[in-house]
């Protein structure tokens, strides 16, 4: 065997041993939160399609029209040939939605975070992250070459302590957090963080991947990034900010400059989805309402967003619970380290406007029976 394959197999064996190996499972998604696996129809509580817009007829039609008229791909980097006018229209609409002067669409949320922090901070600067920040915020922070430090999750006192200790020794300072945390579903204390940031001349970047359209009220940060792939049901990422910041990123974010522009179909779908999101408050309110119904039934802390963690502990146990639920017709993903800290493996239950209350109640009952709640 090649040493390369021996290396890979050794790593895989260790992952298997720790119940941390990940596998792809062919799954077809359908409307109404349906998923089909191995010929069985399941109700999915695993998707981030919080508003059910990935299957909305108007969103699908917009994507189809755009592909038919403009082609399947964008043809190049947006700075070369790939800047379809649909992207400009989408950016204008995103900026308006966030109350910002401008926006920039990236290939994905991950790519947005890979590009934003390194364009704004470097050696001699300080990047402070909430310790539970998403992997792509860490990746952007590390890539920047700035000093990277953390503060305790949602702990403004700890953030103040780190700023007091470290801010003065650095030139620029960025604070990175999430409006709604992806694996815990809780919300950052944005008002307090922004107040501290202002006092310390630090710039706040908030990742709104799980807030947009579902749990996004509250003060805006100077840098508001997010994804087109969750509540908007499409694909792509974005940053909303002031005009000079967006113009700088257009020239300097490497994950924007050196990559192909978003396909016209993805841009058209996101644009249509944003129009629906803004026009339908009842749709926006539904995921949180369903999540609260679920947490009330199970006696869990009241949901703050469409994401509810059911803590299990060990990876093996979380996987087993997920498998049992799948046998009962529910797709609920088990989240394991390193996505979450060791010992905090969990079910991550994601609610969507596409669910009905009977589905939510049935899931709650099943989890209650399985966990003895
Ligand atoms: C999903 C997610 C991203 C990445 O967005 P993609 O468009 O899927 O690449 C970034 N940040 C957070 C918090 C996320 O949950």
Automatic annotation (TrEMBL):
Cofactor list: pyridoxal 5'-phosphate
Domain of life per record: Bacteria
Keyword Transferase: yes
One GO term of the biological process aspect: biotin biosynthetic process
Reactions accelerated catalytically: 6-carboxyhexanoyl-[ACP] + L-alanine + H(+) = (8S)-8-amino-7-oxononanoate + holo-[ACP] + CO2
InterPro entries, per the entry: Aminotrans_II_pyridoxalP_BS, Aminotransferase_I/II_large, AON_synthase_class-II, PyrdxlP-dep_Trfase, PyrdxlP-dep_Trfase_major, PyrdxlP-dep_Trfase_small
Molecular-function GO terms, alphabetical: 8-amino-7-oxononanoate synthase activity; pyridoxal phosphate binding
The keyword Aminoacyl-tRNA synthetase belongs to this UniProt entry's keyword annotation: no
Residue ranges constituting the Aminotransferase class I/classII large domain according to the UniProt record: 42-367
Gene3D superfamilies linked to this entry: Aspartate Aminotransferase, domain 1, Type I PLP-dependent aspartate aminotransferase-like (Major domain)
Pathway(s) where this gene product acts: Cofactor biosynthesis; biotin biosynthesis
One protein family per Pfam: Aminotran_1_2
Protein family according to the UniProt entry: Belongs to the class-II pyridoxal-phosphate-dependent aminotransferase family. BioF subfamily.
Protein name, per record: 8-amino-7-oxononanoate synthase
UniProt organism field: Methylobacterium gregans
Gene name per UniProt: bioF_1
């Amino acid at each position: 065997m090649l040493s390369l394959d021996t290396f890979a197999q050794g790593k895989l064996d260790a992952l298997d041993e720790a119940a941390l190996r990940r596998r792809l499972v062919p799954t077809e998604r359908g409307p109404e939160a349906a998923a089909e696996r191995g010929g069985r129809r399941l109700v999915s509580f695993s998707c981030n399609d919080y508003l059910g817009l990935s299957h909305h007829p108007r969103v699908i039609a917009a994507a189809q029209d755009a592909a038919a008229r403009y082609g399947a791909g964008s043809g190049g980097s947006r700075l070369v040939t790939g800047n379809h006018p649909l992207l400009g229209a989408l950016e204008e609409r995103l900026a308006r939605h966030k109350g910002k002067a401008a926006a920039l669409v990236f290939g994905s949320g991950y790519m947005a975070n890979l590009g934003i922090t390194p364009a704004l901070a470097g050696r001699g600067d300080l990047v402070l992250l909430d310790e539970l920040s998403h992997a792509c915020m860490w990746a952007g922070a590390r890539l920047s070459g700035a000093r990277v430090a953390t503060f305790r999750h949602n702990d403004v006192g700890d953030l103040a302590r780190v700023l007091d200790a470290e801010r003065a020794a650095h030139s620029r300072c960025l604070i990175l957090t999430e409006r709604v945390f992806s694996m815990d579903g809780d919300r950052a204390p944005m008002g307090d963080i922004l107040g501290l940031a202002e006092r310390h001349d630090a710039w706040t970047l908030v990742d709104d991947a799980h807030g947009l359209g579902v749990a996004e009220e509250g003060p805006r940060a100077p840098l508001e990034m997010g994804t087109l792939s969750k509540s908007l049901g499409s694909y792509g990422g974005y940053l909303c900010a002031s005009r000079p910041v967006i113009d700088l990123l257009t020239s300097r974010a490497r994950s924007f400059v050196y990559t192909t522009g978003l396909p016209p179909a993805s841009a058209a779908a996101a644009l249509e989805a944003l129009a629906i999101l803004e026009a339908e408050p009842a749709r926006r309110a539904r995921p949180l309402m369903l999540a609260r119904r679920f947490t009330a039934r199970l006696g869990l802390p009241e949901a703050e967003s469409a994401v509810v963690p059911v803590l299990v502990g060990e990876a093996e146990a979380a996987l087993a619970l997920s498998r049992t639920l799948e046998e009962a017709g529910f797709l609920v993903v088990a989240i394991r380290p390193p996505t979450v800290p060791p010992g905090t493996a969990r079910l991550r239950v994601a609610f969507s406007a596409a669910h009905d209350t009977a589905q939510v109640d049935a899931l709650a009952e099943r989890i209650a029976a399985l966990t003895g709640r």
